[in-house]
Amino acid sequence: MATKKSKRFIQVVLLVSTVVSLFFVPWPIVFVWLKPLPDSIQQQVDAATDYGFEGIIVCVDQAQNEPQFYTAGYHNRAQKIPARPDALFKIASVGKLYDAVAITKLVNDDQLDLSGTLANYFPELANRIENANEITLKMLVQHRSGIPNYTNVPNFWMNPPQTNQETLELILDQPANFSPGEDYEYSNTNYLLLTELIEKTVGFSKFQYIKEEILKPLQLKNTYGSLQEIDMNRLMSGYYVGIEEDMKTDDNGSMIATAEDVAKFIRALNDRSIFTENEAEIYADLYRYGHTGLIPGYQTIANYHKELDAVVIQFTNTTDFNGYEWSLSEINYNRIIKILERKQNQ
């Protein structure tokens, strides 16, 4: 009798555990993942609005073909303006690729040294950032410095600082997350310091240097350094789940560009046409060739796919740092790549 009761108890526990575990399954992601692949990229882009994205722009730049653009949803939800392929978009951390190229060019010109230390470049920070005398410029570029990430400070996005100095203050005098060069941890603080270093080195704004050394040679005329430089009507609206307010006017320091301009940059980065031969060798050992970006209201995926000889850029204008939006964006992007692969193999 006791054995039967024990068995019954175990069965009940297992049943309850199963029900509880099902509650924690990310069903929105599972349902999207299991859906059959549509016939066309446009159908997949249209499906993104069913995933909860207010608007989406996709640019596919395959070699020997004109760039193809796909849109769905809204450029501006309140005004019911459809998504536009030539819209400007906040590309967030995709801008780190431009920064890394800028560092490469300054190193090649002997204006910077990848083995130079943070303490050497910023003596005033020697006693305020742990291990500053061991953190090299290369470690900053590669996120191997151990410096804490300022966007991980609680409630950072609720009331973000207004200047780089105010932002840096958030992590000064804090312990390192690991010894320099011993681990990897993505940290926006690294690139804030790189921005300061570039400007200190060239004597003018980082974006002006990027414009002269990268944008003009590539004839990228729809890439900007700040909101102050653009016609705001061209900027795609950004939304955060549960908040009605349009995020487009939030000035969080992001570079701004069209999908086409980002695609041209990513191709030039990957085919090395943006570099001299020596610069290409420096960069190959320095940073990556594709990137993602995420800030409130704006998600970007920008990558080159060698097997397809294609650059694919995806902008989605709805975010929720506590939800599934980033994963859904990645799934949508990967399904577009699968459609391109299927087409190539037909």
From TrEMBL:
Coiled coil: none
Transmembrane intervals: 12-34
The entry's keywords: Carboxypeptidase, Hydrolase, Membrane, Protease, Transmembrane, Transmembrane helix
Keyword Protease carried by entry: yes
Keyword Transmembrane helix attributed: yes
Location of the Beta-lactamase-related domain: 50-281
Pfam families linked: Beta-lactamase
InterPro entries reported in the protein's UniProt record: AmpC-like, Beta-lactam-related, Beta-lactam/transpept-like
Molecular function as annotated in GO: carboxypeptidase activity
PANTHER family: D-ALANYL-D-ALANINE CARBOXYPEPTIDASE, D-ALANYL-D-ALANINE-CARBOXYPEPTIDASE/ENDOPEPTIDASE AMPH
Annotated protein name in UniProt: Serine-type D-Ala-D-Ala carboxypeptidase
